[in-house]
Design brief:
Blueprint: E1 8-12, E2 26-27, E3 32-47, E4 50-54, E5 58-62, E6 68-85, H1 86-96, H2 99-107, E7 110-112, H3 115-135, H4 142-170, H5 180-195, H6 202-208, H7 213-224, H8 228-246, H9 251-257, H10 263-274, H11 278-286
Antiparallel strand pairs: 1-6, 2-6, 3-4, 3-5, 3-6, 5-7
Length: about 290
Amino acid sequence: MEQAMIPIRVSRLSDWKIYGSQRGRLRSTLDRCGVFFCRAGEVELEIDNTPYIIKPGDICFYVASALVRVLRVGGEIDGVVVEVDVDYILPISNKVLNVQDILFMRDHPCITLTDAQCRYVDKLLELYMRRIKEGDGQVGSSKCRSLKVELIKAGGQALFYELLMIYYTNRPMHPVQRTQKDIIFQRFIVDLFNHYRAEREVLFYAERQNLSARYFSSVVKEKSGRSVLQWIIQMVISEAKQLLECSELSIKEIAVRLNFCTQSFFGKYFKQYVGVSPKEYRERSLAL
């Protein structure tokens, strides 16, 4: 079964390249979000410049394009990492999460499970990993292969809801009625993930929803505490940093990927918001 057909990837935390020279480097999260489940050992992470210590029994969520950096590993690390494509998870999450939920989880990504919850999550993950592994290398009809992919997708959706249920059980929130402004913001986030590489103007996103730029900007600021431009800049700079650290693309190729007219313009844009040039940033990351 081709991995490209499956929008979900499950790996052992011990399989991550987090030792030696890889420590302190960014984990590429372009176009995908994920969750860590720690079984043993200890990992110190930095997510969007905020440090978190993940201990046995902890779960930690991160969103697509977040800057995830492993700072320290303690003991014999064991755990599971589940990563999903953002195109797959957004429609699922929008069924059950509103703006307040998403922002709350972004600001409070980690929870500690009870012993019973640990055993339950461990069992869920093992069953799901077994389902994925059973599909690898099997020969069958195209119908069987399609069914296996859909089973894995459906299982991933169920796993996502199970983890959300545990998260909000451990971190209860007062219910907030979903408003039209919530819908506007959530549509903006979907549009942003789909278009930020090519579109960096507020007007583009406002017109996608037939709204004036002024009203659209006020809604996004009200619901998230950030301006539309700040959201766009964060996405562009986040991908630029990850490509500089985690890929072998040249700076010119990165500029083209992010739809900058010239490498020079990309360099000025990057330095304006990061404080150093792309070349300096890459050299510093390689020196870690």
